[in-house]
Amino acid sequence: MLTVDFDRLGLQPGDRVLDMGCGAGRHAFEMYRRGADVVAFDQDGDELAGVLELFGAMKEAGEVPDGAQADIKQGDALSLPFADGEFDRVVAAEVLEHLHDDVGAITELVRVLRPGGTLAVSVPRWLPEVVNWRLSDDYHNAEGGHVRIYTDHELIDKVTKAGAPNDGGPGTAMAYEGRGYAHGLHSPYWWIKCAVGVTNDDHPAARAYHRLLVWEIMKQPRALRLAGRVLDPLIGKSLVLYFRKPVRLGSPTGG
């Protein structure tokens, strides 16, 4: 279940890419499958162990192009253990809403992205998230839960200002390139969960809708794909923003 559009990100075989806050690895796996040199980064060592195991299984099964590489790295989003400009593409999917110092994390994402490189950031969309918060305190008060609700404008402002010099002179402020929405079928599921209890997985409505989502993910029936296309721009659970790091005079360029 991918949130980021990798064609829109400009991902190419051989690109060095960072999946920051990779979780179980869904985006890292797809980038590896497309021939990228992937680093899956997270704080959770157990999650990373599972990601590394599946990287190996993908290679053994011949699911990745020759030359593609993938590895894991554990650490803190506020102090990424990578050099300035190390990555061609950076992805941070459903991460920033969990971090108290989101500006610090965004600054690090911009730092490790090369001039001319692209960044995709996804967070829960404002309207579906507001509904969840109003229906259930447990939804966002859980340990490691969401600490803020973003508007499009707020997140665009935070990312485009990252890396800009304090003196207002020419710098590397990020260029906003557009947005998308994803997982329109998933918003009603979370509204149901918040209404009946976020841990009440046995509630008939929650169980029935969960089966629908499993069917969508596993079988991708045409009717649900069409429904998703209609619902994504209306109530898509995830907002995805795309940015490019400008190239300074004298810096190497790239696609």
TrEMBL record:
Keyword set includes Transferase? yes
Does the keyword field hold Transferase?
yes
Entry keyword set: Methyltransferase, Transferase
GO MF term list:
methyltransferase activity
* SUPFAM superfamilies in alphabetical order: S-adenosyl-L-methionine-dependent methyltransferases
Please cite one Gene Ontology biological process associated with this protein. Answer: methylation
Show the InterPro entries listed in the entry: Erg6_SMT_methyltransf, Methyltransf_11, SAM-dependent_MTases_sf
Matching entries from Gene3D superfamilies are given as: Vaccinia Virus protein VP39 (3.40.50.150)
Boundaries of every Methyltransferase type domain copy: 18-120
Q: Which domain of life is it from?
A: Bacteria
Q: Which CDD domains match?
A: AdoMet_MTases
Q: Which Pfam families match?
A: Methyltransf_11
Q: Any idea what this protein is called?
A: Class I SAM-dependent methyltransferase
Q: Which organism is it from?
A: Nocardioides marinquilinus
